Recover the amino acids of this structure.
């Protein structure tokens, strides 16, 4: 479907890129659901310790692209990937890559918060247990406390750790999911519209959290909320029909984009 | 106005008919239960449950058949539950909808509808003769396990399908392997549904007569089965045997036997329902 369209010009803005090293290098990435091509020839560098936002209309492939970065699409039948995704210079799609180890290094927070139907404590403990990251009860408890603190939810749950995670509010559940992802100490955190189901106050808390977390993590966030992208991200990439139209510093992309399409999208003049 | 009136009338007609149909089936069930209860209740005592069958109706009991039913059911459960859940997990989580998996799927769906006597014939030639188990508890349990297996597989797959993709993704995203995800997230979430399927399968197995007669279960047994290789009889066969006798006193014994079978069935179901609710609560 997308292949019949006129190829879009992919251009990176001229201003100098971020000063941090490249964490994820993507070259010539194509992705297919069965016969349908969802991503076409993506090439982009994502830098360490900054927040990169993916924006674009629904169905543009931004979530699909995010999920190629921790090979989450592997669990969807009859999908296919071409091209290269390097993390710290290693191809994550090479046959020698351990996908379980990859997902431990590349954490993910989903659009709809999906805490396990267990206690708050057990939700965070799960990742530590299956990866054998805590040698004893004390270490387990310490790591869980640190993760909940890092996700700015400790004060709200410290007295009710044994309660079911389902009793938390939507915003708390999403921060619990972030804590769960942080517990196994990933290097990269992928966030797929993490605040799209939350009210403005809960959204603000998540955004503040993202701002704090970038000191330690490389963060990639998908959002369809352009104000959010402008608020939280350092770099922004704009996707359209499975192609990368433009990427660059967030401020430039929103105020002085190189492409007419980007300008139309970020100013809301569409259709 | 008139169309609105006629639509409302149609609505009321359908509602009335649904209630009538429901009432009809409930009345039929109540009549059946009343009939059996009135025939058999006064034969129900400790003597009836602990006695061996006898030529004299008044001193006959169901002890060997009751123990036999429990033994056979235990063997059936031990075989059918792990095999059935394992097969369902393979087909749903690993099989991945390939042509081979689809072929197995169609066959299992068909097996669930095969008449039970066919399983009896299979059990006779496979377990009793080829594996030389004889007409034993083990052969009976194995035969009923074959019968229960398709039901267990189908209902377990149904239950696995209700576990949302987001639960699996949450687990994978934390670096869990497929087996860890299935064991720690998918199976616990599906457990209430799986238990419902097990109730259905075991209820069907405990009521079966034909396949067990086919493999040579005895109609008259003056001792309770003592082990896996022991000959056996089961409650439905004992009941069938009594019903076929001409003396009216034995018909009363049959009615009392049916009450025991029903109570056994309801107890098993109640246990499963309680277990299911506890698992459901534990996960909320």
């Amino acid at each position: 479907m997308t292949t019949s369209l006129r190829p879009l010009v992919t251009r990176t803005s001229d201003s100098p890129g971020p000063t941090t090293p490249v964490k994820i290098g993507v070259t010539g990435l194509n992705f297919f659901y069965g016969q349908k091509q969802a991503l076409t020839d993506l090439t982009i560098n994502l830098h360490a310790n900054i927040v990169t936002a993916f924006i674009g209309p629904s169905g543009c492939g931004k979530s699909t692209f995010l999920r190629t970065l921790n090979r989450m699409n592997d669990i969807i039948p009859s999908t296919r990937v071409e091209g290269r995704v390097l993390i710290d210079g290693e191809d994550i799609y090479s046959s020698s890559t351990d996908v379980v180890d990859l997902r431990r290094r590349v954490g993910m927070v989903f659009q709809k918060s999906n805490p396990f139907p267990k206690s708050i404590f057990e939700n965070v403990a799960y990742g530590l247990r299956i990866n054998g990251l805590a040698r004893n009860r004390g270490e387990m408890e310490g790591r869980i406390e640190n993760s909940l603190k890092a996700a700015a939810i400790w004060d709200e749950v410290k007295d009710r750790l044994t309660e079911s995670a389902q009793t938390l509010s939507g915003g708390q559940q999403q921060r619990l999911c972030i804590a769960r992802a942080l517990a196994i100490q990933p290097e990269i955190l992928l966030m797929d519209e993490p605040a799209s189901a939350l009210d403005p106050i809960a959204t603000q808390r998540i955004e503040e959290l993202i701002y704090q977390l970038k000191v330690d993590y490389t963060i990639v966030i998908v959002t369809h909320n352009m104000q959010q992208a402008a608020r939280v991200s350092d770099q922004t990439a704009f996707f359209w029909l499975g192609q990368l139209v433009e990427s660059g510093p967030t401020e430039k992309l929103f105020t002085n984009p190189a492409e007419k399409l980007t300008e139309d999208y970020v100013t809301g003049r569409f259709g | 106005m008139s169309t609105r009136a006629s639509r409302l009338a149609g609505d009321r007609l359908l509602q009335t008919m649904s209630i009538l149909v429901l009432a009809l089936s409930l009345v039929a069930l109540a009549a059946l239960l009343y009939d059996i209860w009135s025939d058999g209740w006064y034969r129900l005592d400790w003597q009836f449950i602990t006695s061996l069958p006898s030529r004299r109706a008044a001193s006959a009991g169901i002890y060997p058949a009751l123990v036999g039913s429990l033994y056979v059911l235990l063997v059936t459960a031990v075989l059918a539950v792990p095999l059935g859940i394992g097969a369902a997990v393979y087909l749903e989580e690993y099989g991945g909808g390939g042509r081979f998996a689809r072929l197995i799927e169609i066959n299992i769906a068909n097996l669930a509808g095969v008449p039970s006597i066919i399983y009896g014939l299979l059990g006779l030639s496979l377990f009793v003769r080829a594996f030389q188990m004889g007409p034993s508890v083990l052969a009976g349990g194995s035969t009923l396990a074959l019968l229960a297996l398709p039901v267990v597989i189908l209902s377990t797959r149904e239950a696995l399908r209700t576990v949302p993709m987001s639960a699996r993704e949450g687990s994978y995203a934390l670096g869990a392997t497929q087996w860890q995800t299935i064991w720690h997230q998918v199976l616990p979430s599906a457990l209430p549904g799986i238990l419902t399927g097990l109730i259905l399968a075991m209820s069907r197995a405990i009521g079966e007569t034909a396949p067990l007669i086919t493999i040579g279960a005895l109609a008259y047994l003056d001792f309770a089965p003592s082990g896996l290789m022991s000959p056996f009889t089961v409650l439905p066969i004992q009941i069938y045997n009594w019903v076929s006798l001409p003396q009216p006193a034995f018909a009363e014994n049959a009615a009392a036997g049916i009450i025991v079978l029903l109570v056994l069935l309801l107890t098993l179901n109640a246990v499963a329902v309680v277990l299911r609710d506890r698992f459901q609560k534990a996960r909320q």
